[in-house]
Amino acid sequence: QQQQQQQQRAPPQPPSFRDAPQWGGDAFSSAEPPPSTSSAPPPPPPPGPPPPLDGYDGFPVVVTEEVVEEPGPDRPQLLLQGDGGVVLVPRPRELAAKKQSMRRAGPSQLQVLSDFEGVLTARSTPSGEAALTTAELIEQSGALPPPVASKISSLRAEGNAEEALKTLAREGEVGFSQLAQALAPQWARMPLREGWEAPLMALARVGVPVYLFSDGYGDVAGQAMTQQGLSGGLPNNVWVVSNFLRVGPDGVVRGYTTPVITPTNKNMTSAAAVMEMALPRRAMAVLLGGGSSAGDMLDGLDAQEVLKVGFCPLEEALGGGMQAFAEAFDVVVLGDGGMAFVAQLLDDILG
After folding, report:
1. Distances (CA, A) of 212 to 238, 259, 345
2. pLDDT digits (tens, 9 = 90+) for 184-236
3. Contact present, 268 and 282 (Cβ < 8 Å)
């Protein structure tokens, strides 16, 4: 009887965890939460697809993370990339049709043409300075006597590329090894885009010819790629179409290759002349261009289908140049965006 009285006087024990409503958390996700007694309004429904924005020249633009098939008009799409880049696809359905055509043709019918400057190279350095071209890198490397470097720079600015090369060969008196040493600490002034190696290596694995065009110096372009990623050298399928320096028996630069590659003849006709061979005939081509006139690279190429990717400088886009890029290219990469979209595009084509 005394024991029963003590049990009656004992304070009530708190409910154990096992007795509590079991909801929330991974282990109890199947149980339902207790009914809410709050008078707060229900949460808003999840957001739907992003609304169209007023894009370039007043056209509506859909903002998304990947190209989507939409009913109705073929509206431009602005893609936000994982590498921080922004990509404009002016005509998504037309792009999808070209990709499908190239996928059906297969890698044996594909070739890739690309600018070196403005495509593989970024427009600015990590510190925000304007990136240098291959020609500017030589002129500002300190390897040439200052009067000669200044003269060469002036000749190039006047559009006289061949005379600039003659001046380098005749008056530069620079050894090739000396030039290489002077360039070694300068690569940060000509950075390459994030992920630039991925497209080249994907194309190398299936033997797709790649032509890289530069109206500067091919020696510098090649060294930039080997020093900033391709330590084993350029793959055999990659050809740099540019101006290469020729070294005399004394190790000093004494000449250059012909024809001289300039902004006006940077095309496949010149590529055949530089390589001194007939180029393989392939029906499909992907063009990566650093300017709205990059389509000129196609001169001398007989291709049934061309997919064009343009790399538009941010200041040019903000200054009204986006319209020209959108009309000239199937894809537009803005500013210094990385190569992730291009790599995925080529993967889709190569299957």
Report:
1. 7, 16, 18
2. 999 999 999 999 999 999 999 999 999 999 999 999 999 999 998 887 889 99
3. no
